[in-house]
Every structure is written in structure tokens, then in C-alpha cells.
Amino acid sequence: MEIPKGKRPKHFLEKNEALMLAASIAEVQEKKSSTRTEKHHKLQAGQPKEVQKPGSSAKAKIKETKALLASKRARAKKDKAKLRKRRANDGTLKNKHPEGTSSESPVKTARKSVSFA
């Protein structure tokens, strides 16, 4: 059967045809939903309810890690401040090595300058 090319007349459904189509669609949907509910009830009846332990989601892990890092930063900051105060009180800020002991730091050599042409 060849379908002629070009403009075709519009075909509207009759009132009865539209109602039959809607009824058939509703029937199919009802079957689908009933099978889903049956499956769901079978799963619930067959297995005892398990106590779900709280799963550690990715967001929770990230939150814990951020909190840990923040606490480490805060602790390091406090330690640094205590060290500064201690050095200022002891007077060891300027003079790390007591007089009489020589520090064996390597002698720095002058850097050679390099020019690019």
C-alpha cells in the first residue's frame, strides 16, 4: 500500500475510539503498578527487616576530613604562637647559638650572574 506524498487530510479520533484508547492505556498502567506492588510485598514478606547501619557517604567523609584539617591548622597556629612567645621571652630570637659555641653553617659563595644574549 503506497502512501501518497503531499498534503494529507487530518484524521481525528471518534469519541468512542478516544475512550477505548484511554481505557486500554489505563489498563496497561494498572497492570504495571499491580505487578510492582506484588514484587514489593513479596520482598518485604520474604526477608526480615534489616537494620541499616548508617552508611558513610562521600559527603560525610569530606566533612570529617575538612574538620580534621581545620583542627590540624589551628593546632599548628597555636604551637607557632607559643613558640614565638617563648623565643621573645627567652631572648633567643636574635641569638640562636649561645656565645662560645661556633655554628658550623656552610659559607655561602657569591652567585655568578648569568646574562642571556
Observed structural traits:
single chain, 117 residues, mainly alpha
**What is the helix content?**
55-70%
> Radius of gyration, rounded?
41 Å
Q: Number of DSSP strands? A: 0
Span of the ends, CA to CA: 85 Å
> What is the 3D shape?
elongated
SSE layout and pairings?
Blueprint: H1 15-46, H2 58-90
Can you describe this structure in just a few lines?
The chain is an all-alpha fold. It is built from 2 helices and no strands.
Please, could you describe this protein's structure?
The chain is elongated and about 100 Å long. It starts with 14 loop residues before the first helix and ends in a 27-residue tail after the last helix. The chain is mainly α and 117 residues long. The longest helix is centred in the middle third of the chain and has 33 residues, at 58-90. It has helices at residues 15-46, 58-90.
